[in-house]
Amino acid sequence: MNKKAFIFDLDGVIVDTAKYHFMAWQKIAQELGIEFTPEHNEDLKGVSRVRSLDIILELGKINASQEYKNKWLIQKNEDYLSYLVNMDQSEILPGVLPILQFLKEKNQAIALGSASKNARPILEKTGIIHYFDAIVDGNDVTKAKPDPEVFLEAAKLLNVAPENAIVFEDSIAGIQAANVANMTSVGIGEETILYEAKYIFKNFMYMDTSFIETMIKK
Ligand code: BG6
Ligand code: MG
Predict the structure, then answer these.
(1) Tens digits of per-residue pLDDT, 163-190?
(2) For the chain, is the Cβ count within 10 Å smaller at the N or the C terminus?
(3) Which atom of ligand 1 has the smallest separation from the CA of 12?
(4) Of 90, 140, 80, 81, nearest to 113 (Cα)?
(5) CATH class of residue range 18-84
(6) For the segment 2-20, what is each residue's pLDDT rounded down to a tens digit?
C-alpha cells in the first residue's frame, strides 16, 4: 500500500466561503453594470483573484486600465474580508470535521491546495489549521487552476507521487487541475457541474469512511 496524500481545496469544500466570494464580486459587477449570475460564478470558482476580475470584465466587455483593476481587486478583497470578520467553526461545511478526524486517526497525510491568498487566516479562525501537514495557497503558486501547480506542489511537500494523491474540489477548474496532475479527483457538489471528476459527492455528509478506506488501500 503506497503512502497517500489527501488534498483539500478550501473555499466551497472545507468552508462555506464560496458564497462570500460571489457576494463580493457581484457588488463590483453591479457597480459596473455587468450581469453576473450564479452560473457565471461557476467559472470563477477555484480561479485566482486577478483572473476572476478579468473574467467579469470580459463578461461586460469592459477594457479597464491597470489602475482601475487594482482598485477593484482591493475593493473585492476588503468586502470579502469584511464578511469573514466573525468567522468561526460554524462556517466549516457539514461532514468535513469527521473526515479530517478519520484521516488523522488513520495517519494519513493531509494538505491544503487552494488558490486563495486568505487561506491561512481562514484555517486559523476556524481552528483547523493543525490538521494540515502541508499548506499550498495563492501566495505559493504562480499558475492558477486549472494548472495543476498547486496540487503538484502539495503532493511534493508530502513526498507522495501524484497518482497517489486524492483531491477534493468544488470547482471545475480544480477538478481539471487534479485530472491533469494524474491525481484522483473527487468533486464536492453537483454532478451536472463537476461531471469531469472521477467521483462526485453532493457534500461530505454523503461520503462515508468506507470511501476513504478504499482510497487509502488503493
Ligand atoms: C479560490 C476561490 O479558492 O480562491 C475563488 O474559489 C477565489 O473564488 C480564489 O477567487 C482566490 O481567493 P482570494 O481569497 O485570494 O481572493
Ligand atoms: Mg473551491
Answers:
(1) 999 999 999 999 999 999 999 999 999 9
(2) N
(3) 6
(4) 140
(5) mainly alpha
(6) 899 999 999 999 999 999 9
- Ligand 1 centroid to residue 20 C-alpha, Å: 10
Q: Which residues make beta-bridge pairs with 112?
A: 8, 135
Q: Is 9 a catalytic residue?
A: yes
Q: Would you call 16 a catalytic residue per the annotation?
A: no
Grid-cell match 457588488, residue found = 27
Task: Name the residue of 41, 80, 116, 147 whose CB sits within 8 Å of the most ligand 1 atoms, as the mutation to test its pocket.
Answer: 116
Q: Whose CA is nearest to atom 11 of ligand 1?
A: 116
Predicted TM-score (pTM) of this structure = 0.95
For the CA of 117, the nearest atom of ligand 1? 15
- Name all residues whose Cβ lies below 6 A of ligand 1: 10-11, 21, 44-49, 52, 77, 114-118, 138, 171
Class of domain 5-16+90-217: alpha beta
> In Å, what is the CA distance from 177 to each residue of 39, 45, 147, 185, 199?
20, 13, 5, 9, 15
Per-residue pLDDT at 1 exceeds 80: no
